[in-house]
Specification:
Blueprint (H helix, E strand, L loop, with lengths): L5 E2 L1 H13 L14 H4 L12 E2 L1 E5 L5 H10 L3 E6 L2 E4 L6 E3 L9 E6 L3 H4 L7 H12 L2 H14 L4 H9 L2 H15 L9 H14 L5
Parallel strand pairs: 1-2
Antiparallel strand pairs: 3-7, 4-5, 4-7, 5-6
The structure holds zinc ion (ZN).
């Protein structure tokens, strides 16, 4: 008798992080275990000999794909992504390649992880929650708020609260800033965050508005 199928724990962690970060996202095109059509083919949506399903589909609506893709590329379990007729494979440096399968993946993206017990059971975070937590921590400090205030009033007249709301509406910007906080925090000289530099990065991002490059 074969084991009952289950979603690989690594992918459960990722799905939970996506759901917590984008609680109102559309889940219509979500999926994990293959239907009868999948099961007639070779697909990562079919349970393997351990019962593990090593792929998920995530609806594109209400999430920020670049932010999720950046997290995927950092996780050692991730193997390949298919989205919008493109394939991105870890073994080929995640470069964009044409994908001409039957399903163009225009409403959801597909992620497969490695078909190994180690990859499936790797429950380390994918990092989608740390980004926002870190930004919240950084912008919670009075010195950052003061720096933001000074710069914003001088340059655009918006309040810090408005600026931060605008910032949070652009998840890729949040991710980029969190990376910047990481860098600043990790600097060997004293290890202290350079709040002026950070505030400057935040303000520049808010004022230019668009997604992080
Ligand atoms: Zn899929």
């Amino acid at each position: 008798m074969s084991a009952p199928p289950y979603l690989a724990p690594a992918l459960t962690v990722l799905r939970d992080e996506i759901n917590r970060r984008w609680p109102r996202r559309d889940r219509t095109s979500d999926g994990w275990i293959g239907d009868a059509r999948h099961q007639a083919t070779r697909s990562d949506h079919n349970p393997n000999e351990r019962g593990s399903v090593d792929a998920i589909d995530v609806d594109e609506d209400g999430v920020d794909f670049p932010t999720i893709f950046a997290a995927i590329k950092r996780h050692p379990s991730a193997r390949y992504v298919i989205y919008e007729r493109r394939l991105y494979h870890r073994l080929r440096g995640w470069k964009s390649e044409p994908y001409d399968g039957v399903n163009p993946h225009e409403k959801h993206f597909h992620l497969s992880i490695d078909q190994t017990r180690e990859a499936e059971q790797d429950t380390r975070p994918w990092g989608l929650l740390e980004d926002t937590d870190m930004l919240d921590r950084a912008t919670d400090t009075p010195i950052i708020q003061a720096a933001l205030h000074n710069t914003m009033i001088g340059r655009s007249g918006v309040t810090v609260g408005v600026a931060l709301d605008q910032l949070r509406a652009v998840p890729a910007a949040v991710a980029k800033l969190a990376t910047r906080v990481d860098e600043l925090a990790a600097r060997p000289a004293g290890g202290a965050i350079d709040y002026d530099q950070l505030a400057d990065a935040i303000v520049r991002r808010v004022l230019t508005g668009g997604p992080a490059s």
